[in-house]
Design brief:
Layout lengths: L1 H17 L2 E12 L3 H14 L15 H33 L7 E10 L3 E5 L3 H16 L3 E5 L3 H15 L7
Parallel strand pairs: 1-4
Antiparallel strand pairs: 1-2, 2-3
Helix pairs in contact: 2-3
Length: about 170
């Protein structure tokens, strides 16, 4: 029941606000990685895993002459159609999913709200975003105990931030 869930959430939130803790609500936004190698690997993946088997079948040994040529023409037309229509679509879908994978995606901003009052938005290079975010968290943690809040931060944001920090050679503050 939605009303009791909202009421319970509000009661917990109010209790936390009265405690000696600072609530940091975070949200990180991601995009597919922009490095050229990512797009090359995506193309390689699609060519290897997604090309229909009938386009990679060896020439039938029993065919010869005009029948063999017709088979080759048909196969070549299928390959050309796959490269011009199916491959770009597959690559686009695969690249867009990469924003959810910290190994290939990138953080483009992190928003941080302190106790429902001050809001900070960190932008710039991924390295700068993470450095500024960590610096702010360290500064705030010296004043009060911190509780992180946000939508799916356990299932996504915190882990993604940690993996991208590692990829950028940064140390995560304790």
């Amino acid at each position: 029941n939605n009303k009791s869930t909202n009421l319970n959430s509000r009661l917990v939130w109010n209790k936390l606000k009265r405690s000696n803790r600072m609530i940091l609500t975070i949200d990180c936004e991601t995009i597919p990685g922009q490095a050229p190698w990512i797009h090359e690997e995506t193309k390689d993946w699609a060519e290897y895993h997604a090309m229909p088997a009938n386009l990679t079948t060896p020439e039938p040994k029993s065919y010869s002459g005009a029948k063999l040529q017709a088979w080759k023409d048909s196969r070549d037309a299928g390959i050309e159609a796959w490269y011009t229509t199916a491959l770009p679509k597959l690559m686009d879908e695969h690249v867009h999913k990469q924003c959810l994978d910290a190994a290939t995606g990138e953080i483009i901003c992190i928003a941080l709200k302190i106790d429902d009052r001050e809001t900070f938005v960190y932008r710039g290079t991924e390295h700068q975003i993470l450095s500024d975010f960590f610096e702010q968290v360290l500064t705030l943690s010296k004043r009060k105990n911190i509780i992180f809040a946000g939508h799916n931060i356990i299932g996504f944001d915190l882990g993604y931030i940690a993996r991208r920090a590692w990829a950028n050679g940064l140390t995560i503050p304790e």
